[in-house]
Specification:
This protein has helices at 2-14, 27-39, 53-62, 74-82, 92-97, 112-123, 133-150, 161-174, 199-204, 209-216, 219-232, 259-265, 290-298, 320-330, 374-379, 415-426, 430-433, 435-441, and strands at residues 18-23, 43-49, 87-89, 103-106, 128-130, 154-155, 178-186, 244-245, 268-273, 280-286, 307-311, 343-349, 367-373, 392-393, 408-409. By secondary structure, it is an alpha/beta fold. α2 (27-39) packs parallel to α3 and α7 packs parallel to α11.
Length: 442
């Protein structure tokens, strides 16, 4: 972290600021813009885009920039950047094409729209920092390939649980242990929550109600853990993960997993509900080295064979600027897929659904998401929850039924469908879709 501080101090002194273009002015994107403008030396907001520009304007006013200009075209945006004036727009493509933008932060929580933003950024030679695990888990492997082909970086972010977990994975590996389990601590899990049940909470915290619903119904945790799996080569031990209800400390969970099974499958992702400390993430690692085992016991980490490491918080937008420095200055992605998908997030019906209904997508009234091995998901032709919004049902489905591609009619001409087909075609060999093989190769 001290290197990040030094970089920002040097850039500030040299007046050579990292110029960030943010796409999405919701809770995370907007708060990151505020954080950069108010508290991060050596970095500036070049511009922020939102499909409803009034939200972007509100963020800038909150950051004491009430007269920030609305830019309508490339010339206006470039002129504002040259003058050092943060601006806002409703056209994300302006940010992707701007010569004065060093990096794009994708913070929309969308799939189809966000994938278009990423491709445009890559085509214009810009790295993308994503704080969008929905996108990363659904199309991350193919987007990462496009980024690699363009010679730029596609990275997850510090602050979000997947990025915090990957930092912990690197720490555990760096002290000589083998990470075998990546876990997440949740306070609530109820797959039948809806925007109606979560409306008051969303209003209290000024958050998108569908996003809040996806936290409660398990879809969000599934995206986060799938993104981790694809970045580590780990997998799930069962559909939906185990998800124990446990009120003790996570250190006490080390005896709940079979080390030999975890070794055999190349590690696993999971979550626990109600454990301490929470909210947070944890990694269980192992070692066969008697010397390390001796000193782990001396340092109060127990007798093994699994040892517990955890981060008892994730600070969301407060940590995102660190990711931007890592990507721009050090070419160091916080998190990126190793290869093809290992774990996907499939769609399951939240209630009985009728033929002719249109699926309302992530965090809605109709479906929830569960993590599943990619090989199984593809063999059963299961519909990724990230692509379910707008699909029209062709037959009735009972509650808690996995939705297949043959159950729905897809919306016409979506970019995400084209990218999904490319992803399936490119990563179709068993070695690229097997977690243990990916982990060994890495």
């Amino acid at each position: 972290m001290h290197l990040i501080d030094k970089v920002l101090s040097r850039r500030s002194a040299e007046k050579r600021l990292i110029r960030v273009g943010i796409v999405g002015a919701g809770s995370i994107g907007g708060s990151t813009a505020y954080q950069i403008l108010r508290h991060i030396p050596g970095m500036t907001l070049a511009a922020i885009s939102n499909r409803t520009p009034e939200k972007a304007k509100e963020i800038l006013a909150r950051a004491q920039l009430p007269s920030a200009p609305f830019v309508r075209n490339q010339t206006e945006l470039e002129d504002a950047i040259r003058k050092g004036i943060p601006s806002y727009t409703d056209d994300a493509q302006l940010l992707c094409r701007a010569e004065g933008v060093d990096v794009i932060l994708e913070a929309t929580g969308t799939i189809d729209f966000a994938s278009g933003v990423c491709l445009s950024a890559f085509q214009n030679g810009k790295p993308v920092v994503s704080i969008n695990p929905e996108l990363e888990a659904t199309l991350g492997p193919i987007l990462n390939r496009y980024a690699n082909d363009a010679g730029v970086i596609f990275s997850g972010s510090d602050g979000d649980q997947p990025g915090v977990t990957l930092n912990l994975v690197r720490f555990v590996s760096g002290i000589g242990l083998k990470p075998l389990l990546c876990g997440n601590v949740k306070a609530l899990q109820d797959r039948y929550r809806t925007p109606e049940t979560q409306a008051e909470f969303a209003k209290t915290w000024d958050q998108n109600v569908k996003m809040v619903t996806s936290f409660a119904d398990g879809t969000k945790i599934s995206f986060e853990q799938a993104a981790i799996a694809n970045a580590t080569g780990m997998t799930v031990t069962q559909r939906g993960m185990i998800g124990r209800q446990f009120n003790g400390h996570i250190d006490e969970l080390t005896n709940s997993y079979d080390v030999d099974e975890l070794e055999e499958i190349g590690g696993a992702v999971d979550y626990v509900v109600g454990a301490r400390p929470g909210p947070g993430v944890f990694v269980f690692g192992t070692t066969g080295d008697p010397h390390i085992q001796k000193y782990l016991k001396l340092y109060k980490l127990g007798d093994g064979p699994l040892y517990s490491f955890y981060t008892p918080y994730h600070l969301c937008f407060l940590e995102v600027p660190n990711s931007i420095v890592r990507v721009v200055e050090f070419k160091d992605p916080v998190m990126a897929p190793l290869g093809g998908p290992v774990v996907e997030v499939i769609s399951k019906s939240k209630r009985p659904l009728k033929a002719g209904e249109t699926i309302d997508g992530i965090g809605g009234f109709t479906i929830y998401g569960e993590a599943e091995k990619s090989k199984i998901a593809r063999s059963e032709d299961l519909l990724p929850v990230g692509m379910a919004e707008g699909c029209r049902l062709l037959r009735d489905l009972p509650a808690d039924t996995p939705v297949t591609f043959s159950d729905v009619k897809l919306p016409p001409e979506r970019l995400c469908d084209r990218l999904w087909r490319e992803q399936c075609a490119f990563f179709n060999s068993s070695s690229q879709s097997d977690g243990a093989s990916l982990r060994k190769a890495s």
